[in-house]
Each structure stands twice: as C-alpha cells, then as structure tokens.
Amino acid sequence: MFTVLSGKFELNLHGSKRVMQALCIKEVEMSSWDRVTQLVEASKDFILTEEERELMLKAEQSAYENNLAQITEVLSIVEEKLKNLGFWVENKVSNKGMRFRFSLAGYYGPGGFSTIYHISGPLVLGVINPAGDPIASFYSNDIDQCLLVGEDFDKNNFEKFILTEIETYLQPENLITSKEQYDRFRALLTN
C-alpha cells in the first residue's frame, strides 16, 4: 500500500516518510480502538443491567430498614457521648436514609456521614468532609473500603467506622487555629 500511495502521488523521499508515518499512526489508532472495543465487550459481564440494579436497590433498602433498630441504638449512644463532650450533633435516621453530623467549637466542620448508594449498587455510608460541603457525602470507589448498611451490615464495623470518623475529625489539621495562633490570641487577650 505504501508504494502504491507514494507512486500515485509522486512523492519524494520526505513525502514518502510522511505517508509511512500516517499509515503507521492509522494502524496504531485502529488497533487501539480494537483493544478498547475488546475491553468494553469483556466488561459487560460485570456491569449490572437496569433490571438487576433495581432488584439490588430494593434488596438493599429492605435490609437497611431491617437494620434500623441497631443503627438507631448505636447512633443514640454516640450522640449522647458527643453532646456530653460539647459537640453539636445532628442525628437524622428514617427508613429513607440517615445523616449523622457533628461539630465541635474550634474545629472545621461539620464532620459525619450519610447513606448513599454506591455506583456498584450497595447502600453505603459516604463521609462528609469537614473542609468541604457541610451536607454532601462521598464514598470510596473501592467498595471494599466502604461501610455497608444494607444486606451486609455489621454492627461492630459500624461502631468502629463511627469512632474512626470522630478521631479523624479531631486531628490537629482540622483545628481552625494552630497552637501558635492560639498562643498569640491568648497573649492579646491578657494585655
């Protein structure tokens, strides 16, 4: 094909190189697209259909509703402990979902978590970033890193998750003022 094109367009050596490069690029582009097509076809077995997704959502919702007594019990205890430590707490739990937020004076916030359906289907807890939107929650794309609150709910894992989120919230980098700023403010107040 190269010699046919070179001769047809009466190309010199430089022009012939350009034709050869164009042909190579076209061949690479086509083989890359063939590879993309193969990957898409191979992944289809791992992607839920809309019907399967609907069935999963119904099963997850039903399981979540069955777990509500345990979830409410744990969150009530945590709410009481946090309030005793001076936290503001929002504890909203219903059969439609949950949102649990907390904030302590001197820290960015609020922190917390809320229910959200993972892109792969299960109902999980998304984390609220204290330095970001006070309502929106985000989950890890890796489902194994998420806390499941539907069919695979585990009360012990739920309690550990909550403690980890509170400890993460209370890290020094979430303090509004640093130790140096605090000392400076205290010095100003005493003068």
Any overview of this molecule?
- The structure is a single chain.
- The chain is of the alpha+beta class and 191 residues long.
- Helix content is 52%, strand content 15%.
- It contains five helices and five strands; from the N terminus they run H-H-H-E-E-E-E-E-H-H.
- The chain has a five-stranded antiparallel beta sheet.
- Strand 2 (97-103) and strand 3 (111-117) form a beta hairpin.
- Helix 1 (2-8) packs across helix 2 and helix 3 (50-84) crosses helix 4 (155-169).
- It is flat and about 75 Å long.
- Residues 1-6 have low confidence and may be disordered.
What is the N-to-C succession of helices and strands? Answer: HHHEEEEEHH
- Chain-averaged pLDDT: 84
How far apart are the termini?
A: 89 Å
Estimate the strand proportion: 15-25%
Please estimate the helix content.
40-55%
> Given the C-alpha coordinates, what overall shape results?
flat
**Computed structural class:** alpha+beta
- Low-confidence spans: pLDDT under 50, at least 5 residues? 1-6
Biggest sheet features: 5 strands, antiparallel
Strand order of the largest sheet: 1-2-3-4-5
Number of helices: 5
Radius of gyration equals 28 Å
| Number of strand segments | 5
